[in-house]
Amino acid sequence: HTCVDTCPENTIAKDGVCSSCHPGCLTCTDIGYDKCLTCQESLFFLDNQCYQSCPRGYFSDHTTRTCVECSDGCTSCYGTGVDQCVACNDDLVLGESQCLANCPQSYFQVPDIKQCRRC
C-alpha cells in the first residue's frame, strides 16, 4: 500500500484506503450506484446516478451529459419544450409534437396509436 494525499479518479477515500466508485461514476461521494458526483464520458447524470440512456420522461442532453426532464405529459422527448414530445402519458394524445387532451380542430386521432393527424 502507498499513502497518497488524494485518491485517483473513480475512487474515494474510505477508512484510509482508496476504494473504487461504482463503474459508471467518474467521481463519487461513496461506493454505490447512487453515489456519483460525475459520470464516465459516455454516460448521462441524473440524481447521483449514471445512465447509458435516460429513463422514461427524460432526454439525454449530449452537451451537458445529463438527463433533462421532459415537459409535463411527455414520456419521451428530444428537448424541454412543450412542442418537443415524442410520446405522451396514457391519458393524452400526441399532436404536432405536443401532448394534448384532445386533437385540435382539423385533426383526427389515429386509432390505437394516440396520435393526431391532419384531416
Shape summary: rod-shaped
The low-pLDDT segments are none
Count the E strands.
Answer: 14
Beta-strand percent range: 35-45%
Strand order of the largest sheet: 1-2
- Write down the Rg: 21 Å
Q: Please give the count of helices.
A: 0
* Major beta sheet summary: 2 strands, antiparallel
**What is the average per-residue confidence, as pLDDT, rounded to a whole number?**
92
SS-based class: mainly beta
In quaternary terms, these chains amount to: single chain
Give the termini separation.
Answer: 73 Å
Order of helices and strands: EEEEEEEEEEEEEE
- Residue share in helices? under 10%
Descriptive report:
- The chain has 119 residues and is mainly beta.
- 0% of the residues lie in helices and 44% in strands.
- The protein is built from no helices and 14 strands.
- The protein has a two-stranded antiparallel sheet with strand order 1-2. Strands 3-4 form a two-stranded antiparallel sheet. Strands 5-6 form a two-stranded antiparallel sheet.
- The chain is rod-shaped and about 75 Å long.
- The mean pLDDT is 92.
What's the layout of helices and strands?
Layout: E1 11-14, E2 17-20, E3 25-28, E4 36-39, E5 44-46, E6 49-51, E7 58-61, E8 66-69, E9 74-77, E10 85-88, E11 93-95, E12 98-100, E13 107-110, E14 115-118
Antiparallel strand pairs: 1-2, 3-4, 5-6, 7-8, 9-10, 11-12, 13-14
Keywords summarizing the entry:
119 residues, rod-shaped, two-stranded antiparallel ribbon, 44% strand, mainly beta
In brief:
The protein has 119 residues and is mainly β. Helix content is 0%, strand content 44%.
